[in-house]
Amino acid sequence: MTVTTEKSGAEPQWAVEIIALNKWYGDFHVLRDINLTVAKGERIVICGPSGGGKSTMLRCINRLEDWQRGRVVVDGKELTDDPKQIVAVRRDVGMVFQQFNLFPHLTVLENCTLAPIWVRHMPKKEAEELAMRYLRRVKIPDQALKYPARLSGGQQQRVAIARALCMSPNIMLFDEPTSALDPEMVKEVLNTMVELAGDGITMLVVTHEMGFARQVADRVIFMADGQIVEINEPKAFFDHPQHERTRLFLQQVLH
Amino acid sequence: MAAAEKIYLRQTPAAPLPPPATRAGILGWMRANLFSSPLNIALTIVCAGFILWVAPQLLRFFIFDAVWSGADRQACLASPQHPDVGACWAFIRVWSSYFVYGFYPAADRWRVDLFFFALAFGIVWVAWLGAPRRGLGAVYLFVVLPVLSYVLLSGLPLLGLENVPTTQWGGILVTIVVATVGIAASLPLGILLALGRRSAMPAVRFFSVIFIEFVRGVPLITVLFMASVMLPLFVPDRFSPDKLVRALIGVALFASAYMAEVVRGGLVSISRGQYEAAQALGLPYWRMMGLVILPQALQVTLPNIVNTFIGLFKDTTLVFIVGIFDFLRTIEAARGDPHWITPVTSVTGYAFAALFYFVCCYGMSRYARNVEARLARAHRR
Question: Hey, are the CB atoms on A104 and B379 less than 8 Å from each other?
Fold first, then answer.
């Protein structure tokens, strides 16, 4: 196998490798033989009907979900039961949740500096400068000293993105980041994500925002019944869906 | 007309107006809160009548007719000049040092005073939210103070402080020692047990559940008896700890089982999203608990924690059952003093005890409410 990365040969080739992943909730087979490799810098959008296993698959990548069979390798590090290894992977994988999950007892700034200070052992001053830099990027530096409860949903989600970015992750996971937002706030969050996509960070996004998929995705994945049904480039995916399920889904979503 | 109303377009913006000024002043407040309905009026009258009936009697007994000084029981006995005798505060005054120190040697009581002062200093340092260097205060309260207290109270001949066996301790000193040790030990132990009960490791979970359920299923008196009577049966005499220490261990374990359930209630109320967000940032277990989950859980459950502290403070009176002279026990002993036996001695003694416990417990309760209000305000900012 020829390694063509410019640095050392030890540099892992893929950002994420999911190999023959199977997961059951009790008797229910949620993830069925998932195989997926994501290249570094690639932007993936995952769509599909609810209950299809999209979020579950995404959450396996930082091991918020456990699985019974198969392997997941992130940045060359295989996720095993070893807590050290799991923490090591999570450090470099940012995640944004549907419900924001900001820490309500900390200010916006403290939300952003918590992990850099306690996980990366960064001096407080440096962490605060870093946090302010990212808060400026998501355009809410003036809210830094407020508590999350005082912010709108869109602002909270942008803080959540800044909080994840403060750990300088190699990979960002977005789990339906705009689903819990009021319609007029979806746009501000999507704009932040589009901007982020321009930076070359690896992104995996579970979303129903098909406009976003068309605009930034390198590949679009359609999942249903715990399986990957179709993977294609966005243009081909939307214009010429191959599978019957995909066509049906797109008809309903794009009306 | 009806057709014309179907389409509407505002022509002038509606300016904000101040709220109407009804129910202002004391009269307005009284009308709204005391006399708003027939039932409310009836309750107000009944309560006011009860207060008017009881308050003068209490005031007369405890203040106006009370005896404030005297050398012995004669002062507190009814006489022709003095037909109505109220509380015998003279008795409390004469016995007060016994109530505070028990049989602690008189020459060494300055050590107890210094301990009280050092404890009060530490509590104020940590509890006063605006105090400087509160982290250092916590180190002082939880590391320096226990060592200092032990040296002061128990003595260290090396430093010229003679040993005072705990059998000579008593009164408020013992009550404060038992309560502070119980409170200081039960919170961390309770947190550990609560986390253990929710642990993913079956052995840890099993041990925690067994401990919590066993201790909660047994009265404190039984725990104290077991600690003081059964422990010596299993442990050889020379390793057997002091009687007071055994009671302290019993109280601490008992309180921590209750605290564990209180803390668990707080942990349950924290949403899974908080755990997941902390994990996704790469925080390991203890960091996640210490920085994200516990601060929120303890805040939610603060009223219950203080409730447990107050319960514990009053439960310390049960240590008399294993022969320890706590504050209430010293009053029990003193009220039988033949020099002071009068019809009002016991009442005065118990009233004094009630006052002491009330001041301590109400203080804790008020402080907790202040902290609660302050935290609630802060997080809405």
Answer: yes
